[in-house]
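User: Teach me something about this protein's shape.
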Amino acid sequence: MAGARGADDDDRAARIAGVVLAAGAGVRFGGPKALAARPDGTPWLATAIRALADAGCSPVLVVLGAAAEEAADLLRTLPEAVEAVVVRADDWADGMSASLRAALRAAAALDPTPVALAVVPVDVPDLDAATVRRVIGAASVDPGTLRQAVFGGRPGHPALLGRAHWDPLAAHVGGDAGARAYLAAHDARPVEAADLSSGEDVDRHS
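Assistant: First, the predicted structure itself:
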């Protein structure tokens, strides 16, 4: 559960929402990554949600598709203080872009509308709140913010998307491509975080 927060943290939490992209079937992985767990049994899904929530993101939009019912059951293990909202991507089989567009639509419908979204995929099991906090806290956040964690210069997650970018991004992505090309084309500000976590996404079972 997140620790005590001051007024500045409360304002940030109200303005920045989190997104976990967890809708894919995980064909190369051998099954939906939304159901995967760390060696200690902690679901990857819970790890991603807690990292965002503990960094002050609220609500956390959890995009589900393949194995959605089983994945939604995992959310019951979260502390009550964590506001996780399930977003169904019915067209999840169309690829990462479908999940991202579902998240952007859901975020735009929130009241009040967040100023930005911190977006992570479910398959970065060593993601922690410190990494998310660094990306959010690297500078002030406004609708034009475009920021991305990098690890030794390698682009990773989270990405911080100001709401002015949501419609252009939704129009830009397609197929199994996420936000990476858009971030590169629009000079997203890199935020180095290699001292905090590896940022490695897991594509296959080890």
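Now, about its shape. Confidence is low (pLDDT under 50) at residues 1-14. Residues 23 and 65 are 4 Å apart (CA to CA). If you'd like, I can walk through any region in more detail.
User: That's plenty for now, thanks!
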